[in-house]
Every structure is written in structure tokens, then in C-alpha cells.
Amino acid sequence: MSDSEVITVALIIETFFQGHEEVGYAFVCQYLGDLFRHLLDLDRFNSRRRHLVGIIEAIRRKLRNQIIDQGDRIRIVDSAPITLMTYTRGSRCKTVLGSEYFGVVTSKKGKFFGLRLHATVTAEQLIDEWLLAPASATDAKVLDELVLDCRDLSIIATKPTMMLSWKNVCGVNGLSTSCLYAKTIKKRNGLSKFVVSWVGFGIGSKLFSAP
Prior knowledge:
The protein is an alpha+beta fold and about 210 residues long. The protein has two domains: about 5-65, no CATH class; about 75-210, no CATH class. The protein has helices spanning about 5-15, 20-30, 40-50, 55-65, 140-145; strands at about 75-85, 100-105, 110-120, 125-135, 155, 175-190, 190-200, 205-210.
């Protein structure tokens, strides 16, 4: 199985099976075997895929540079939990060790054990920069590292608590920072009414509201 085939199958799994490798690979073996005639067993495929992660990321960046409009200078910062085990069984995990992998999802008022994906995303929902950190690392803690290679961008966060850390990056490499968040007010005629607020340092004003 060639490197290009491993990468292609990996993309199929991520795109159509939400990253569930066992289910996605079983589908490929059963229905796409005529396209991939030298399929490996799942363990060997997983090992090859992990060894190619640097090449896969390089390809992603190449495609990103081609797709993102160079005139688009706005990036939204957000994060998502990646659960490795249940919170109560986290201490038994052998993949990662340490109390820093126990985290909280404030929006869902829940706890989890694992990692947290942090990313800067365009308004068209295309990921620009990303990094993985332990679950306890909040957006504010990793912001400096996340935007380290960014230049002349307007960074917008979805969590007002990140404003506390932005004093460290504001003005660095031409970066400017603000906070954008939406709140559902009330459903009317089957539609939710959202109020989106733009918060800057010392400034708070309503940007727009959707009736």
C-alpha cells in the first residue's frame, strides 16, 4: 500500500466516518477493495498513517494556502474537546498521563479526559492554524502559541474570558483582537433571534441583531 493510498484512505475515514478508523477502514475494505488492491491490516494501516502525519499536515497547509482568500484577514479562535476516556477512568489511561489531561467543558457543564483542539478558523469555517493541548489548557492559555506565526490578522474569539490574555498578543505581528459571541434571545415564528456582540478593550457595543 503506497503512501498516497494511505493518505487517501485516511481522508475518506475523516471525511465520511468522523474519524472512526475501525468503521471507516472496514467500509473501505468491503466496498472499495477494487480501488485499493494492497490494503493492510488495520494495525499496520494505523502505524503507517501516524508516520505520515507530517506529510498530511504539509498537504493540508498547501491546500489551505490555495483556498483561503489572501485578502481575508479575519480569524475566529475556538476549541473543542477530544475525549480519550471517560473522566472517571482517566487515571487508567496509558496513552497520556497526568492531571493536566482532566478538563472541563464549560458550555456543557461537563468534565472530560483527553485533549483539546485549539484552532483559528476563517469565516467560511476553514481551519488555518491548529494545535493539540491537554484538556486543562484553556483557549486563553494557548493563544500565544496558536497565533505565533500569524501576521496582520484580526483575531476574534467566541469566549469573552479570552480577553484577559489578549493584552499579550495585541499589536504583536500586526495582530488585533476582539471578542464575538452570540446569544439566543427567543424563538419567534420558528426562528431563533440572535444578538451578536462585539467586545473590545474597554468597549462594548451591539454589532447587529437578526430579527
